[in-house]
UniProtKB/TrEMBL annotation:
GO cellular component terms, semicolon-separated: membrane protein complex; plasma membrane
Molecular function terms, GO-annotated: ATP binding; ATP hydrolysis activity; transmembrane transporter activity
Stored PANTHER family: ABC TRANSPORTER RELATED, IMPORT ATP-BINDING PROTEIN
This protein's name: ABC transporter ATP-binding protein
Source organism superkingdom: Bacteria
Domain ABC transporter stretches: 17-248
Keywords linked to the UniProt accession: ATP-binding, Nucleotide-binding, Transport
Amino acid sequence: MSAVVSETGRVGTQAAVAASSLVKVYGKGDTAVRALGGVSVAFQAGKFTAIMGPSGSGKSTLMHCLAGLDNVDGGSVHIGGTEITGLNDKDLTKLRRDRIGFVFQAFNLLPTLSAEANILLGLELAGRKPDKQWFDTIVDVLGLRDRLKHKPSELSGGQQQRVACARALVARPDVVFADEPTGNLDSRSGAEVLDFLRMSVRKLGQTVIMVTHDPVAASYADRVVLLADGHLAGEIQNPTADSVLSALKHLGA
Ligand SMILES: Nc1ncnc2c1ncn2[C@@H]1O[C@H](COP(=O)(O)OP(=O)(O)OP(=O)(O)O)[C@@H](O)[C@H]1O
């Protein structure tokens, strides 16, 4: 694999995350649901990819399997060159902590901690020291400098999600998984978060994979991967809200 060097000099193999023939089945016997029916897909380092598809098409399942949050029933997942399928719980927890950032729809911040403590908690639990310059970069880019001492309840939804973005990026993960990151935000706050995710890719060399229902949110990505019925159903490079909408209509979403 050839190396990709970002503007910040971050070097990675081309596929930050790759799934091969991924199968996930929920339940057993007559009630079994084949949520992923053999999905092979690679996510290039230094790119922003959106996963889209009709309700029930397997988006969340794919993200959970890619991030090692759920076991798979067949196939494999590699993150940054490490096969995560087959790792024991301890190694998987460590890999998630060290190499993956998460942004969830519901922010998931600890209410008793300040914004700064929330951002740094993961590193602290891992016994790692923050890189001060990197911390300052993301705090300033996210416009959180004057909010660092505030508790989540003292922040707007958009500010809370920006704290969650900073928390996801502070350890410079191999990949950030964002699950409907704008689902609880008004359109202006959502646009700010999406702008930041895109900027973290373009300027800071990060890799972001986002599940979304929203064609406008998907249009911030470099590429959209489409799922239908647990299978890959196509992809769109340099998507626009219109091209995504028409692809989804084609899939019957
Ligand atoms: N824990 C579970 N137990 C049983 N079936 C499940 C479970 N989680 C998901 N499924 C089923 O697997 C299929 C894929 O679900 P998944 O949540 O991945 O789809 P999705 O594309 O993310 O849907 P949505 O857009 O509605 O969030 C669906 O048929 C769903 O009902």
